[in-house]
Amino acid sequence: MDLKIMKLHQGILFSNLIAVFVFFTPSASQLSSDFYSFSCPNVELFVKDTVRSASDFDSTIPGKLLRLLFHDCLVEGCDGSVLLQGNGTERTDPANKSLGAFSVVESAKRLLEVVCPGTVSCADILVLAARDAVELTGGPLIEVPLGRRDGLVSSASNVRPNIVDTSFSVDELAQRFTSKGLSIEDLVVLSGAHTIGSSHCNAFSERFTQDSNGNLVPDDTLMEKDFAMQLAKKCPASASAATTVANDLSTPALFDNQYYINVLANKGLLHSDSVLIADNRTRSKVEEFAQSQDAFFTSWEASFLRLSTIGVKTDDEGEIRFACASVNS
């Protein structure tokens, strides 16, 4: 064969191989469930094993991981900014002082840095860990898209204007959710996260007043009387700031639809839980999920996917941190 023709054929073949490679290589600008198929194929297994081991040792871990994801995604987007330590970071805001399970995400990161160095973002690890926390407590397994980059900004001043407060009305809750691209239906569905986890007594202390003898007296008509007295006993005025109560006193360790059954019976722990049945826009969904766990699980999958893709960063919008608690130097 003529040397020029041979070189031309080789050039065409090389170009075609490059085109095929580019076509099948996941793009960092678009999240994909198989983003790490080539670069770190066992990432999901490693994260799940880490979450399972931690949860076996400490049953509060699943609820903490799920809450951690909410507090991450609602502020700077799902970019792991809540994981950063340092003066003035999100973690220093009083609303975030009670967050936990940071060590679980960091443990998974250290493992992945050994097997897939510089490849998997802390933001993706947190999403996977929260996803696994739901499944390990009885909830649905969700296939989540990956490819997030870790954010470079974490500021305490951004926390309060973005997170949800337990004293919010439905209007305030809806406004905060819609500002993140979430619907009022997402609000009801994602409130179901309170089927696991716990809350500190001060998260619902505004629902009580203190009488002259120092006893807590229910002051919220949206609480069933016996349930309110039960809470008053669990959280007396003398209780320490570290005292917590399960969000769902009936099945605290199970991700199920009991939360909605509780709320319908006026046994929602937080004011922001109870208001869901006091508004026609949200009550019908609470009733639907109380009657059907399948309906809740189906809706949870869709709403969780929307939550976990809020404000994601890709390409040069962020980085892959070497450690989740600090940006790369």
How does this structure look, described?
With 329 residues, the chain is mostly helical. It has two domains: 43-163 and 309-317, Peroxidase, domain 1; 170-307, Orthogonal Bundle (Peroxidase, domain 2). 44% of the residues lie in helices and 4% in strands. The strands form two sheets. It has a two-stranded antiparallel ribbon with strand order 1-4. Strands 2-3 form a two-stranded antiparallel sheet. The protein is globular.
Which bin fits the share of residues in helices? Answer: 40-55%
The SS-based structural class is: mainly alpha
Q: What is the first-to-last residue Cα distance?
A: 55 Å
Task: Give the amount of beta strand, in percent.
Answer: under 5%
The CATH homologous superfamily name of the largest domain equals Peroxidase, domain 2
Architecture of the largest domain in CATH?
Orthogonal Bundle
- SSE pattern: HHHHHHHEEEHEHHHH
Radius of gyration: 23 Å
CATH structural fold name of the largest domain:
Peroxidase, domain 2
- Sheet of most strands: 2 strands, antiparallel
Q: What does the overall shape look like?
A: globular
Figure out the total of helices: 12
Topology, number of strands: 4
CATH C-level category of the largest domain: Mainly Alpha
Strand order within the widest sheet?
1-4
